[in-house]
Amino acid sequence: MEQPGGHQVITDILPTGGENPSSGTPISSTEVARIRSAIKEKYKNVSRTAAGFFKYPVGREGAKNLGYRDAIVDCAPDYLVESFCGVGNPFLPGPIKCGSTVLDIGCGAGFDMYVAASFTTMSGTVEGVDLTGEMVAKARKNLQNLGLDNCRVHLVDTEVLPFDDERFDTVISNGAINLSPYKDKLFDEIFRVLKNGGRLQFADIILDKDLPPEVKKSSQAWSE
Predict the structure, then answer these.
(1) Residue 22: its pLDDT value, please?
(2) What are the φ/ψ torsions at residue 9 (nearest 5 degrees)?
(3) Which residue of 5, 11, 53, 91 shows the fewest CB atoms closer than 10 Å?
(4) Any domain includes 3
């Protein structure tokens, strides 16, 4: 999918049911704060282990099921892969080039950053953002333990990305964009930080039918 400015969008979508909650019935700032708090609480727990929090395979088994290369998954230490809860594989649609700059939206404990760094090599850079402090702390420690000095992780709990315009060759995301109550703003920011001709490669879940307004505003529904 070609976007204005020459950006390419390549997606791996898993339907779940329901309308895009960032459109239609408005969500108040108070409700957004409550939603973000519930999401942070869930992923605080996931930062310890993803087991038991999702209805699909997670961790090492989940990564292999989603088509990540066995060589990469097998080499990943347990402390890195135990919190992996991706819904797809953002690396399947196209290559990450050696020396490129990559941004991971919702980087979690850093598994996809580790994978991206295996493609960019040390001549490239990989930045990650996440809204959960515990995940950011774990990702920083994980990537430091792996000696990936070209990877940096940032705590960002809004849709505003702390990067200059046209900073990245590729933006990836795995099961995280759906958690934003302001998706239009987030996509605007993604395209702002992408270079001309850059690529957005993401895997996510979508809603394929309308939801009642009370469900759209439910912090429990957003964090399940």
Answers:
(1) 45
(2) -120, 120
(3) 5
(4) no
Question: What token pair was written down for 65?
Answer: 């099921």
Domain carrying residue 187: 8-223
Residue 1 lies in a domain: no
Q: Which amino acid is at 213?
A: P
Q: What is the pLDDT of residue 207?
A: 81
Q: How far apart are CA 187 and CA 64, in angstroms?
A: 29
What is the reported pLDDT for 4? 47
> What are the Cα distances from residue 22, in Å, to 19, 90, 211?
9, 23, 12
* CATH code of the domain covering residue 165: 3.40.50.150
If one counts the domains in the chain, the total is 1
**CA count, 13 A, side-chain hemisphere, 86:** 33
Rg, C-alpha atoms of the chain = 17
Question: What per-residue confidence (pLDDT) applies to 216?
Answer: 73
